[in-house]
Write a structure and sequence with these properties.
By secondary structure, this protein is an alpha/beta fold. It has one domain: Vaccinia Virus protein VP39 (Rossmann fold), CATH 3.40.50. Helix content is about 35%, strand content about 20%. The chain contains 7 helices and 7 strands, in the order H-H-E-H-E-H-E-H-E-H-E-H-E-E. It has helices spanning about 15-25, 35-40, 60-65, 80-90, 105-110, 130-135, 155-170, and strands spanning about 50, 70-75, 95-100, 115-120, 135-145, 175-180, 185-190. Strands 3-2-1-4-5-7-6 form a 7-stranded mixed beta sheet, sandwiched between helices. Helix 1 runs antiparallel to helix 4 (about 80-90) and helix 2 runs parallel beside helix 3 (about 60-65). It is globular and about 40 Å long. It starts with 12 loop residues before the first helix and ends with a strand.
């Protein structure tokens, strides 16, 4: 695996990282995790990708960096202030659509089997409403959940919620699932055809 120093960054990422620090937004995707997002996005040429939790656009930048010219990304975020950073730095890319609002409502409104890749970066679709996100993954599609390691900024109850989420994911029979104790903690799942 690449060391952090040798990772090729998406062009917009340094400016996004600076804006993220200025906002004191502490929930951006882990730098080490980015190349995995890029690789998984590249595995879905012409695909329709979903990011649940834009944040400031760190994960968005990695996904866009891996996508081909015909792939499309929809990124949902309830916090307009943090999503504004992503819009500023990535909004000119025609492959991405930023959706402001509640992720749960967005997930409920989508047709089943409508995304080739679902990246659950926020709470909805991962710690809560997991089934809503999983039903959107096409056969052969990939589901990604990160930020599964406990850290100082999380409340004590989060550890139990993360453990329950991981158990739920590992118990799925219609997905091939792997849990990685790497970067911020990752679960990857591919829907069986």
């Amino acid at each position: 695996m690449d060391t952090v120093e040798s990772i090729r960054l998406p062009a917009a990422l340094p400016a996004i990282a600076d804006a993220t620090r200025q906002l004191r937004f502490l929930y951006a995707s882990d730098l080490e995790f980015g190349p995995l997002l890029r690789m998984l996005a590249a595995s879905k040429p012409g695909g329709h990708l979903l990011e649940i939790g834009t944040g400031t656009g760190v994960g968005t930048a990695w996904l866009l960096d891996g996508m081909d010219a015909t792939a499309r990304l929809t990124s949902v975020e309830r916090n307009a202030d943090v999503q504004a950073v992503a819009r500023k730095h990535l909004g000119d890319d025609r492959r991405v659509t930023f959706v402001p609002g509640d992720a749960r409502e967005f997930l409920q409104a989508q047709a089943a089997d409508s995304f080739d890749l679902v990246f659950a970066d926020g709470g909805p679709g991962k710690i809560t409403d997991t089934e809503l996100a999983l039903r959107l993954v096409k056969p052969g599609g990939v589901y990604i959940g990160d930020d599964l390691r406990q850290h100082l900024l999380q409340d004590d109850g989060r550890a139990a919620r993360v453990k329950a989420f991981e158990a739920k994911m590992l118990g799925l029979t219609d997905f091939a699932v792997v849990k990685l104790d790497w970067a911020s903690g990752v679960v990857l799942a591919t829907r069986r055809a």
